[in-house]
Fold this sequence. Notes:
There is one protein chain. This protein is of the alpha+beta class. Among the domains are: 338-487, Isoleucyl-tRNA Synthetase, Domain 1 (Orthogonal Bundle), CATH 1.10.730; 524-648, CATH 2.40.50.140. It is 41% helix and 19% strand. It contains 21 helices and 27 strands. The chain has a 6-stranded parallel sheet with strand order 3-2-1-12-13-7, sandwiched between helices. Strands 18, 19, 20, 21, 24 and 27 form a 6-stranded antiparallel sheet that branches. Strands 5-4-6-8 form a 4-stranded antiparallel sheet. Strand 4 (119-129) and strand 5 (134-136) form a beta hairpin. The termini are far apart. The relative contact order is 0.08. Mean pLDDT is 89; it is low at 512-541. Residues 129, 131-132, 134, 146, 148-149, 151 line the site of zinc ion.
Amino acid sequence: MGDKGKYYITTPIYYPSDKLHIGHAYTSTIADSIARWHRFNGKDVLFLTGSDEHGQKIERIATSLGVEPKAYVDRIVGTFKTLWDKYDISYDDFVRTTEDRHHKVVQEVFRRIYAKGDIYKDTYEGWYCTPCEAFWLENKLVDGRCPDCGRPVELVKEESYFFRQSKYADRLLQHIENNPEFIRPESRRNEMVNFIKSGLEDLCVSRTTFDWGIPVPIDEGHVIYVWFDALTNYLTGAGFLDDDAAFDRYWPADLHLVGKEIVRFHTIIWPIILMALDLPLPKTVFGHGWLLFGQDKMSKSKGNVVDPMELADEFGVDAVRYFLLREISFGQDGSFTRQALIDRVNADLANDLGNLLHRSVAMILRYRDGVIPETGPLTKLEKEVQELAGITAREVGRHIEALELNAALSAIWRLVGRANKYIDEAEPWSLNKAGNSQRLDTVLYHLGEILRILALLIKSFLPTTGSKIWAQLGIGDDLELTTFADTRWGGLKPGTRVKKGDPIFPRIEIDAVNEVEDVAAPDNRQKAGGEESMEKVASSDKPLVSIDDFAKLDLRVAKIKAAEPVSGADRLLKLQIEIGDEERQIVAGIAQHYQPDELVGKQIVVVANLKPAKVRGVVSEGMLLAASTADNLSLVTIEKDLPSGARVK
Ligand SMILES: [Zn+2]
């Protein structure tokens, strides 16, 4: 096998001051998908993650808990590893900054830069934000507080070692200008350029007022500044000082994936450390956006942290991975809500992908006793789906190169959609009825082959799902060992025996209109969180009601006057309805089952006295009735023509 080159990708090393939230799982899931994709393309991948364990903040937390800092971080770091196992994060190495191998690297880096004359001793007098572990000059503070996090800063005056950052400012600006790929996305690049141009001070790189850190090698009373220590993990993980062959192969990193709040450390301090060491700079630092919960950044103090472990237990890891990768435009802030997650699972995973697999395997079992047939002559339809499969594979590759993960998934789901449409167009059941055996063979082969290609394209993003599709297709080869070349059309061998399996994504049965904000009480924060309003109720569990309870509902015949999609919510339609001489607007989760045009003029049944609510920001004054199964939905209508406003009882 030829050398396809290497790919070195890193996550930030996470800080063990708190439990990990869904935002951390977001970063690691992205890094994992990119790493898996490059392995699939035959690259020699090094995927690094780890934990950032030193600093004043950790020391204070540990002290407040009455434990040694090391005992404190050991426990927390254990939970990181459990979470990454749960999320199928395929990291190759995990650097803990408390490890000896890292300790050695940090001290040597410090020693080399000191020997070069780029670290010198002076007195630091200024401000320090302990939560951010960041130094600030008076003129950078905002209202006397940390400009990054808005929290109070502390005045620090101590003897310190300083790193001559200022000396490298012009060279760094030049590098950023010559290498547009270095800081991405572009908005962050512009921010950083402005920051550097506003003047770069020398950086304080040692502290004397606490102990929890790596000692300065030439002056044991000092500990090395925690960011200087942490950033260096990317060298440790690549084998710096330890394995020259590995280091020569993997360094520089191809991609440092970081949250936008730490782009500054990675695109100013880090490259300057590397310049001072005469090492090449990483190719790209990508600052992704935050996962917001409603409008706020998730944080423990706001009480809106979503526990990624509980979420994976409830919905399954691949459902959560899919949501994170698909829903959020990479680089921008994204919003997490349970309803959006449920919508994605039901629409894309249960309906589109799950049904495609289920229908195809069921038909191969029913019509061909589970054996993949030989294909016969192709029609225009088969040529079309074959061509789209090829285009999709190449497009996914291009999107990953461009770090557009959501676009990669939407390309894959376009093929899923096309395959479902192909079933409807080719009508295997009619071919079977008509005894058109050769044509039926062709259609069934094509369905199996599209699914095989989908398993290959999906496995980097949803590893378990890829394996499940593979298993149902009955392909014996190890999915792990497949490569991109296997996505070429025709890999499925006739004679392969498919296996009936469970639905890969059971539909989550929660009514779309359950998660609503009460218009009468718009500041009901509990409800905005979605947790309380999302009871799962199976129909058989409902208690008996009296006729009086039922009589409380005002059910009316309504006529649909107009219908349109709700932007940003692909399950919802906004309907203008007429109830007698009253006009109202309602929002209904039926977009997957009805086109807006076919609804106009229909007579439906609505609950007319439902309290008004907001669904995805759109006011809804009532609710329509519909019957549904796992994959189908039908509006409840009336058998004879009656005027709108007529009572239903
Ligand atoms: Zn701060």
